[in-house]
Design goal:
Layout: H1 5-8, H2 17-28, H3 42-51, H4 58-70, H5 80-88, H6 96-113, H7 131-152, H8 161-173, H9 184-215
Helix pairs in contact: 4-6, 4-7, 4-9, 7-8, 7-9, 8-9
């Protein structure tokens, strides 16, 4: 299954995005993880999780946080640690290393989602890794996004048609056959799916995340 980028760029209300998005794609194709220098590389992140007996991929962590923020979690909230402990650690508090680890991920996502230069990217293995490894990480990222989005967004009936389409497409991507023949065609297909997921996340955040923040009261109490 291949999801083509131009489909996303037909979304209503974002007429100025196609040209900008295509320019960004050309400028970032050489390294999907080049902006991820705020925390360890993908393999090092995987080791931290395994050493602390958290049996998930780093891409899923990034996906869950992205989904939470894309659907309206306050970008300044400290609620995310409790949510992540519920999802990944059966509600048990994280140790100091994991708190720092997840805080770094949260900072990475919040910093890049809120930029106007489209620099947000999925956290995946480097493109030098096998297509199968990248595809498995992509499926984990998309599954994480759907989980995070579903935890905070309960009223699907009020979502726009565009966002509903993204959720439908992400559900299909989460079922992606991750067997690849390591061909150029497969590499291009995988790249287009990654770009679709990346831009879709930005669109969801623009529609739901930023709207939620602008509508929030000036002062509030976190529970």
């Amino acid at each position: 299954m291949v999801v083509y980028l131009f489909k996303l760029l037909q979304f209503s209300g974002f007429a100025v995005w196609p040209v900008v998005a295509l320019i960004h794609i050309q400028s970032t194709k050489s390294g999907l993880t080049s902006v991820m220098n705020q925390i360890e590389d993908y393999q090092a992140a995987q080791q931290v999780l395994e050493q602390n007996e958290i049996h998930i991929m780093p891409s899923e962590v990034h996906g869950v946080i992205s989904g939470l923020l894309a659907c309206g979690l306050d970008i300044q909230s400290d609620e995310y640690l409790q949510i992540l402990s519920d999802v990944f650690n059966e509600g048990q508090k994280f140790n100091g290393e994991l708190k720092t680890f997840f805080a770094d991920f949260y900072k990475l996502v919040t910093t890049n989602l809120d930029k106007e230069d489209l620099s947000f990217e999925l956290y995946l293995p480097h493109e030098d890794e096998s297509q199968a490894d990248q595809a498995n990480a992509l499926v984990a990222w998309v599954s994480g996004f759907l989980l995070g989005f579903g935890l905070k967004q309960k009223n699907y009936g009020k979502l726009s048609a565009d966002v509903k389409e993204v959720i439908t497409d992400f559900t299909e991507i989460s079922k992606l056959d991750t067997h690849f023949d390591e061909t150029e065609d497969d590499a291009q297909a995988l790249y287009e799916i990654i770009e679709y997921a990346r831009i879709s996340t930005l669109l969801c955040f623009a529609e739901l995340g930023k709207k939620q923040q602008s509508a929030a009261p000036q002062s509030k109490t976190l529970h």
